[in-house]
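Field: COMPLEX_INPUT
Field: COMPONENT_COUNT = two
Field: RESIDUE_TOTAL = 572
Field: MODE = joint
Values follow.
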Amino acid sequence: MRKVVPGHLLFSQKIYIKLSTTHFHQTPLLFCLVHRYFSTKSVSKCTLGEKFKLDVGTINGLNDALSVYKKMVKMNPRPCVREFNKLLSHIVKLRECSTALSLFKEIRILGIPVSEYTMSIAVNSYCISNRVDYGFSLLGWFFKLGYVPSATTFSPLLKGLFRGNRVDEAQELFKKIVSEELCELNVVVYGTVIDGLCKAGNTARAFELFRVMERGSCMPDTYIYSTLINGLCKDSLSRLQEAKILMKEMLGCKVYPDLITFNIVIDALCKEGLVDDAEDVARIMIQNNVVPDIITYNSLMDGYCLQSRFDDARKVFESMAGKSIVPDIFSYNILINGYCKGMKIDYALHLFREMAQKGLAADVTTYNTILQGLFCDCRCYAALELFDEMQVVGQKPNFFTYCNMLDGLCRNGHVQRALLFLDELEKKGLDLHINYYNIAIDGLCKAGKLDNARALFSSLPSKGLQPDVVTYGAMIKGYCQEGLLVEAKNILMNMKLKSCLPNSLIYNVIVRGFLAKGEFGEAATFHEEMVDRGLSPDYSTLTLLLDLWRTRENNLTLHNMIQKFAPENTML
DNA sequence: CTAGGGTTAG
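Field: COMPLEX_OUTPUT
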């Protein structure tokens, strides 16, 4: 049976074409209105699909969503855009952005009309998948279709830029939004930028924006305060006192903390070692009818573990059951990490097996944590087995897994095994990283296998790798320890030629190396060079310097020597 | 039907 196209639908398509080619640039708003008017009109004549209302609550997982989508596409006429939007949005919430984007593309190919909502969902999907530039390219489509991107479109773009460490571009976009009035400056846009700035370490700029908000018509809400409190708590030097003041300011403005605000504070206290205070805050939150969730308990557990109060951590873990909260992968990883750090590896292993029994799959964090724990406990064989096991169950090792393996093997006297491991990595055609070689070179030097270290070091360029300051440092330290100062000096010269600046660690090693050999003139030269470069000797180098010069130059008083070698060091 | 804040290893 052929579908009869209603006359007014044809008419609306003509208008659409005409407006989009001639009038759009002058009258985008008018265009939108006309477009929307006719879209609704055309839908009103639909029969089967028009009545279809999607209830995402009935969708069970991705496959279900996909079959619903197929059903919707087959309907004639098709359900309205809104139902497609609901479905797409639901798929994004299932964290299946790539699927959502394929469907979005298919919808376009099938000629199913999309709305500004569909477009925003697509932009957001791209941003979540770290493909912000594709998100930006969709902005062009907005205009083609006669839509105007809104704050809802721009906030994911801003967030995506920040997440990709493109802080300058994010700030530029924000400035552009403000100066060209691209969209409404609402609390969500501010929140996105403030959070991005805090996470980029620019708390000062975040607060500037916050004060701008306060003065303007857009009042900060719980999200904004939580973001800033979190920013203060996680600033390089934690600023808990300021966070406390901000919390008071927040209450004064009658903005009240919610679950996430409390979780931020609880976590910050735990990380400061104030887990008992964190417990107090948890009690206060309950008094305020805010119910703790799994993240609250996970933070508390971590807090106890940091204080080596494993029994208390365990109590929190077990108390979750009574609150019908099921421990998640974080809960297990936190407790496993606690036990590993506390050298209670068997407890950690027990939990590891328990999670499998409960149907909870260990992730790469779990494996990395336990691998480290096993190596710390000198259980190399078990670690090697676990490394194989993780691959058997399909958990891909990452950069840190490989570092753990190499480092663990070296530290346990299995440098040769580490080298074999490194060979395997090379053969696998993995992305090689200079860190792998730094660990191996350091291991070889510490094992006194300087020739092997040198050979590995020399092979780096052929592998397409550049030594970094750590590589040079390992070699220099290796030579110094063997008293081979000429070689150490050569490496130092080499790195300078490659414009790799020696750090204070390297200078300290060299100065101590020359002092140990009694070559005081050389030691003094490098000491001077270090100071010239704004670096200072560490405690043990300084002690050696002072002792030696004191015995050699009796006429120097201690005061003179301090003036000479550590003018800025007030400790001595 | 679209957008912002919180927990683990290295």
